[in-house]
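tmp note - NanoRNase/pAp phosphatase, hydrolyzes c-di-AMP and oligoRNAs
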Amino acid sequence: MAQATAGEEWIADAELFVRENPELAVATAIALVVVLGSVYAFVRLRRARGVTFRRLIADAEEIAVLMHPNPDPDAMAAAVGVVELADQVDVDATIQYPGQIRHQENRAFRTVLDLELDRIDHVTDLAAESIVLVDHNEARGFSGADGVLPLAVIDHHPGDGAGEEFTDVRTDYGATASIVAEYFEDNDATPVPPDRHASETDGSYTLPTSAATGLLYGILADTNHLTVGASEADFAAASYLYPGVDQDRLDRIANPAVDAEVLEVKARAIAGRQVEGSFAVADVGSVNNVDAIPQAADELIQLEGVTAVVIVGERDGTIHLSGRSRDDRVHMGKAIEEALADVPNGDGGGHARMGGGRITPDIDPTDDSIEEAVDRDDLSDGLFRAMAGDV
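out:
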């Protein structure tokens, strides 16, 4: 008779153990299942978010990448990145947005990178059932937005919105573009230098120079050139993107022609500012271009001795506020939110360094006149109290 192999002997011993200790054998089997399940869950949790997102959208036939109303460079950059990643897994993607693109910097971003952006007014205008929200976590700004259940959400703003299958909200990041840049790095995508073609690079995935340029500018725009609200991750993302950046196009986006009204509004803000300590509030009156208001805030915060500022302006009866802070005592988003808390139709919020808000008027359909939404002097006083923490 042939001698039994070591494997056969092990099996025989195992069978004997099970017959003699059935309860212990069952417990051992259950423990093994639990251990294997835990290992699998750990591996799933360890999987890079960018890989998870790529696999998710790869299962869709087409997606709509939805930006917030009046999108800024960070929103457009993140959208471009998502579309580029979708293209590399053979998924059709359309970038959409409600509102308008008015700010000269935003228009330059769109023109220089030759972006195809689709404006929408109603939920039925959405290009696909699978929707990815970028740079905001709850759809808004168009009819039927409340009924939108996004497939995925990618954002760096605080909020309660979530995606049905994927949610990646990192409030400690300075820009959504940094998160999307990480997705490419998670998938080992190689940034393509402006003087080379994607076919000249190795790897299954690439990051084209137009997308790299847009993502870097999105980071720079939302962190004031990596000086305000930037995290270590934003610096790391910028470093990863740099080899693929087209310096000429980056400069053309950063230095567009300035609208004459923007210069006028900045001048009115500087000349008409009220100052209490190191805080400033400026009411610039009526404006045609509401994007001039945040640009005036960016200008005023640079003045010597000013550490927090809010600019107030009005267009078609709606009062718009934009604030900036470089003062650790002033969380600008919370300050504006608190200042408008008791104001009818007032709504505000934002980050520690940057915030905004608006006050919409009550319109009587039987009367063509629009009543002032709030007393502007009282509003200025409330803003100063909120910045000082006296609310």
